[in-house]
Amino acid sequence: MRKTLWAFAIALCCLGSFARAAGIQLLQSDPTLSGAIWYPCAIEPTHVALGSLGVPTVDWLEGTKDCPVTGSKLPLVVISHGNSGYFALHLDIIEALVSAGFVVAAINHPGNNTNDMSGRGMSVWASRPVQMVRLLDFMLNEWKDRAVIDRASVGLFGFSLGGFTGLVLVGGQPDFRRLACKPEEKSMVCEQLRAGDLPPDPPHDARIKAAVIVDPAVSFAFTRENLAGIKIPLMVWRSELGGGGVNAAGVASVTSSLPGKLDVHVVRAGHYAFLPPCTPELAALRPQVCTDPEGFDRAAFHREFDAAVAKFFRDQLAGGNH
């Protein structure tokens, strides 16, 4: 997925408002933890300025900054965005989860986000799971309000390259040697592959008890055998058409290779349909991100998508009680 598409797609994040008041704590002091934490809050929301966390067209979010957390024993969901994405890109999912009583944490993946694309080659793929482990370590062991989290109820939502990240974290063992490079291809990934310069095996994290995986990228790296280590409940969403660097056939192959009983949804649209609906202005500027097949209603789909994701996590992490 090209940065130019994502730089405009990030404007989508502020189209909705929280159905229930949400507290927001910004993560700004550590470049490895740049993002935000959302959680239930009893104070009416205002505008929270993002400062250095802002991206083109987005410099605030709706919520109550540093509001006291409402509730206890709250389930936690961490979010991994796609290539060149942004920590608040999936704000509609965050809204649904916070309204259902979840704590949600998301970061900008260092070197692979809208404001910083300095990461290169296979190191980007291998470093993302490490970064999410760091986020979980922070949320469970260092966050000032960590006592409100139910440590036994942790989930993950991952889209695109974030979907790949999620599959690795929950037990997938990617084999980057499966990448098919043409002799004339000069990309850094292919050069690394030819040189045998493979990154170390990325980590898994047994603290994650359920995951929603959406149109995962780098699908070539997975086989039935190296996905066999996944033992937790998964909800999987995939697009029929793919796009944005994601191969629809590859994602279908990964989905069919996953072990256990899955909750699988196939969407008759392209990869970008999983982003929130576009404004008319954005649709005119970036039709690649905003154009869906005839008859596909992205707004209606997201009402179903958001509700289904929240229900899955409620059922798996909170026993349907939130």
Q: What would the keywords be for this entry?
A:
Rossmann fold; ten-stranded mixed beta sheet; 9 helices; disordered N terminus
What report would you give on this structure?
The protein has helices spanning 3-9, 91-99, 122-142, 161-169, 188-195, 248-257, 280-285, 287-290, 298-317; strands at residues 22-27, 35-40, 46-49, 60-65, 74-80, 103-107, 149-159, 210-214, 234-239, 263-267. It is globular. α2 crosses α9 (298-317) and α3 crosses α4 (161-169). It has 322 residues and is an alpha/beta fold. The protein is built from 9 helices and 10 strands. Strands 3-4-1-2-6-5-7-8-9-10 form a 10-stranded mixed β-sheet, sandwiched between helices. It has a single domain, classed as Rossmann fold (3-Layer(aba) Sandwich). 29% of the residues lie in helices and 19% in strands.
Most strands sheet: 10 strands, mixed
Q: What is the first-to-last residue Cα distance?
A: 35 Å
What's the SSE pattern? Answer: HEEEEEHEHEHHEEHEHHH
Number of strands: 10
Question: Treating each run of at least 4 consecutive H or I residues as one helix, how many helices?
Answer: 9
Which parts are unreliable, with pLDDT below 50 for 5 consecutive residues or more?
1-11, 13-17
Helix amount: 25-40%
Chain-averaged pLDDT: 92
Rg of Cα set: 18 Å
Assembly type: single chain
Write the CATH fold name: Rossmann fold
Overall SS class = alpha/beta
Please give the order of strands in the largest beta sheet.
3-4-1-2-6-5-7-8-9-10
CATH homologous superfamily, by name?
Alpha/Beta hydrolase fold, catalytic domain
Proportion of β residues?
15-25%
